[in-house]
From TrEMBL:
InterPro entries: At4g27190-like_LRR, LRR_dom_sf, Plant_NBS-LRR. The lineage of its organism: Eukaryota, Viridiplantae, Streptophyta, Embryophyta, Tracheophyta. Keywords: Plant defense. Residues 2-51, 222-277 form the Disease resistance protein At4g27190-like leucine-rich repeats domain. This is Uncharacterized protein LOC116203131. Pfam families: LRR_RPS2. PANTHER family: NB-ARC DOMAIN-CONTAINING PROTEIN, NB-ARC DOMAIN-CONTAINING PROTEIN-RELATED. Gene3D superfamilies: Ribonuclease Inhibitor (3.80.10.10). SUPFAM superfamilies: RNI-like.
Length: 325
C-alpha cells in the first residue's frame, strides 16, 4: 500500500469523524493524508504511527502530488491530544509549511527512532516547520509543550537537548508517565544521569527501553530517590543485558517498595525475577512478563512470601520457563 486513497475529489474527501488513527507496518506508504482530508479531521484526538520505513510526512499537499492547489495557514487536528511516532526512519516533517498544530493541547508525545525528524527546540518557534530547502526546523518548543504533557517519550538525543537548555525546575510539572529509550553505546549510565539532572520529577510511571545496563537502578539510587518518590509503575522493554530486577543490598529497594505494577518484555538475559525472599516488592499487585526467553523460573520458593499483595500475574511466550517456583 502506497497511500490511503485513490484520488483527491478536490476537497470532498473525508472520514466519518474518527477520533483515533493508528498505522503500523505499511512499508510502502509515503504519507497518510492529503491536506483536503486532514482539514476535515476536526475530531481526531490520537495519532499513533510505527514501523514505516518509507513514510516521509503525515500530511501532504496535493500541489506536491498532483500539481493542485490547497489553502494554507490552517490549523490541523484542533482536538489532538496524543501524538506517538516509533521507528519512522524517513519521517522528515508532519505537514506542509504554513500548516500548524495547537501543541499546547497535547497531553501525550512520543518520538523514538525517527532519525530525520528534529523534534525539540530550546526556544519558542516562529513558524510551524522548516521550509523545503533541506533545512529542518525543530517541530516543537520545549518551553511551550513539555510543561503541559502528562505522558512523554524521549530518546537520548532529545534528552541531551533538554539537558543543555536553561529551563525552570518545574519543566516536567504535569508529567505522570515518562518513557526513555536509549539504544547502543552510552546507555549504561544514561538513566542515572537523567534522574540526577531532573530531581524534581514526580512521575508515577517509568518505561525503559533499549538500555544496556545489567541492573536498573545503580548504587547511586539514593541520590535520586526524590525524583522517583511517587513511582508506582515500572515497565522494562528490550533491556538485552539486564540480569537483575532486584539485588540484595541495592539502594533501589526503597524505590521498588512503592511499585504496584511491574512489566518485563524481551529481556532475554534475565534468568529469574525474584531470586530470593525480599520485602522490596511488598506493594506489587500486578506482574506482566512477556517474551523473556532466558527466564527459567519466576521466583525462588521463599520469594512468594515477599509478595503479599500480588493479585494478577500474566506470563506469555517465555520459551525457557519451566516453573513458577
Amino acid at each position: 500500500m502506497r497511500h490511503t486513497w485513490d484520488r483527491d475529489p478536490r476537497g470532498s474527501l473525508s472520514f466519518a469523524k474518527p477520533e483515533r488513527v493508528r498505522a503500523e507496518r505499511c512499508g510502502n506508504l509515503e504519507y497518510l493524508f492529503p491536506t483536503s482530508m486532514a482539514r476535515g479531521l476536526v475530531q481526531l484526538q490520537d495519532i499513533d504511527i510505527s514501523d514505516r520505513a518509507v513514510l516521509e510526512k503525515i500530511v501532504a499537499r496535493w500541489d506536491e502530488i498532483l500539481n493542485d492547489q490547497t489553502p494554507d495557514d490552517q490549523l490541523l487536528f484542533p482536538q489532538l491530544t496524543s501524538l506517538r511516532f516509533r521507528r519512522l526512519q524517513n519521517l522528515k516533517r508532519l505537514f506542509p509549511v504554513n500548516y500548524s498544530l495547537d501543541w499546547s493541547s497535547l497531553k501525550t508525545l512520543h518520538a523514538f527512532e525517527c532519525g530525520k525528524l528534529k523534534m525539540f527546540a530550546s526556544e519558542a518557534l516562529q513558524s510551524s516547520e522548516g521550509d523545503d530547502t533541506g533545512f529542518q526546523q525543530a517541530l516543537v518548543s520545549i518551553v511551550q509543550v513539555i510543561p503541559n504533557l502528562e505522558v512523554l517519550g524521549l530518546g537520548i538525543e532529545d534528552v541531551l537537548i533538554i539537558k543543555d537548555g536553561d529551563f525552570l525546575d518545574d519543566l516536567f510539572r504535569n508529567l505522570k508517565i515518562l518513557c526513555l529509550a536509549c539504544f547502543g553505546e552510552g546507555s549504561v549510565g544514561f538513566l542515572s544521569r537523567f534522574l540526577l539532572d531532573f530531581p524534581n520529577l514526580k512521575i508515577e510511571g517509568l518505561i525503559l527501553g533499549g538500555f544496556l545496563f545489567e541492573e536498573i537502578f545503580l548504587d547511586e539510587a539514593g541520590k535520586y530517590l526524590k525524583a522517583l518518590q511517587k513511582l508506582r509503575e515500572l515497565q522494562l522493554v528490550q533491556l538485552c543485558n539486564l540480569r537483575y530486577v532486584w539485588k540484595e543490598g541495592s539502594l533501589a529497594a526503597e524505590i521498588l517498595k512503592r511499585i504496584e505494577l511491574l512489566g518485563i518484555e524481551r529481556c532475554h538475559r534475565l534468568k529469574t525475577v525474584f531470586p530470593e525472599a525480599c520485602d522490596s516488592f511488598e506493594n506489587l499487585t500486578k506482574l506482566n512478563i512477556e517474551k523473556c526467553d532466558g527466564i527459567r523460573y519466576l521466583m525462588a520458593p521463599s520469594a512468594a512470601r515477599g509478595l503479599p499483595k500480588l493479585a494478577r500475574m500474566t506470563i506469555q511466550d517465555c520459551e525457557m520457563m519451566g516453573e513458577i517456583q
